Amino acid sequence: MSRELKCCPYCGSAALEKRSELQEFSVPYGAPARVQVDTMVCRECGLDTDVTEGKDVRDAIDSAVEGTVGRIVDFLGSGGRTLSSVERALDLPERTLSRWKNTPKLSRESITLLRFLRTYTWLVEVADRGYNEAFARGAVLREAGRIVTEATEREGVTVAASACIGETYEALTFTLTKTREKETVHVVGSGEPVLV
Ligand SMILES: [Zn+2]
Predict the structure, then answer these.
(1) What residues of the chain score a pLDDT lower than 50?
(2) Between the CA of residue 50 and those of 36, 41, 92, what are the distances in Å?
(3) Within a domain: 11
(4) pLDDT at 159
(5) Which of 61, 101, 102, 182 is the most exposed place for a label (fewest CB within 10 A)?
(6) Centroid of ligand 1 to alpha carbon of 186 (angstroms)
(7) Domain end marker among 86, 110, 128
């Protein structure tokens, strides 16, 4: 569905031509939402006016997001963890996560929480330790170490780490040197090594 446009909002001409194209809107941890976007093009002045109903775009994105909830919940309950242990750590009522899997139009707050937990999987451990500050800082460094270890295994490199610590952790730089090719890889807060 698209809204009706009888004349060009710029020049007032009625010589309008409808063009439609399929656009993709990316959705975290899911397939993109595909929406038909309709544009009325003025043959007189060339102005493009988007006449797609905003509701159609929102509905398509909501439905694509809904499709990701089950997958994220399943991920949280994998890798040696159970959904009930995650619920206990997060202080959520029992069976909340499995209920979310079957809840159409889950709240945005819940979806945001799920995305954070999927992105930073160690947040559950931090919650489980009562948000202890020292444990939380350690968790960040352990995760950085894991990323570097993975990079070294993948790239076959040696590692030198340096941390610049002021009042807060401002920079943590790992310099990875490839012994054979003499290449240097810097990982600065990134999961993917960047060749320089
Ligand atoms: Zn016009």
Answers:
(1) 168-170, 187-196
(2) 11, 9, 43
(3) no
(4) 66
(5) 182
(6) 53
(7) 128
State the total domains in the chain: 3
Per-residue model confidence (pLDDT) at position 150: 78
The pTM assigned to this predicted structure is 0.72
| pLDDT (0 to 100) of residue 172 | 58
Query: 171 is in which domain, residue-wise?
Result: 138-195
50 C-alpha vs ligand 1 centroid, how far in Å?
13
Residues 50 and 81 in one domain: no
For residues 173 and 159, is the Cβ–Cβ distance under 8 A? no
CA of 19 to the centre of ligand 1 (A): 15
Determine the distance separating the centroid of ligand 1 and the alpha carbon of 56, expressed in angstroms.
26
3-state helix, strand, coil in the chain (%, to 5): 40, 25, 35
Distance of CA 6 from the midpoint of ligand 1 (Å): 11
C-alpha 43 to ligand 1 mean position (Å): 7
